Amino acid sequence: MYLFVINPRSGGGMGERAWRRAEECLKERQVEYEALRTGSSEGAGREVERALSRRESWTACVVVGGDGTIHSVLPTLRSRGVPLGIIPAGSGNDTARGFGVPKQTEAALDIILGGSKTGADLLVGAGPEESEAATLTSVACGFDAQVAVNVNAGWYKPLCNALHAGRLAYLIGILHTLMTYKPGRAVIVCDGKKHAFENVWLASVCNLPSYGGGLLIAPQAKPEDGLLDVCVVHGCSRLQVLRLFPTLLKGSHVSLPFVTMLRGRRAAVSFDESRPAIADGEDLGGASPDVRCEPGALTVLTPRPGGD
Ligand SMILES: Nc1ncnc2c1ncn2[C@@H]1O[C@H](COP(=O)(O)OP(=O)(O)OP(=O)(O)O)[C@@H](O)[C@H]1O
Question: Which of 98, 175, 247, 262 is the most exposed place for a label (fewest CB within 10 A)?
Answer without folding.
Answer: 175
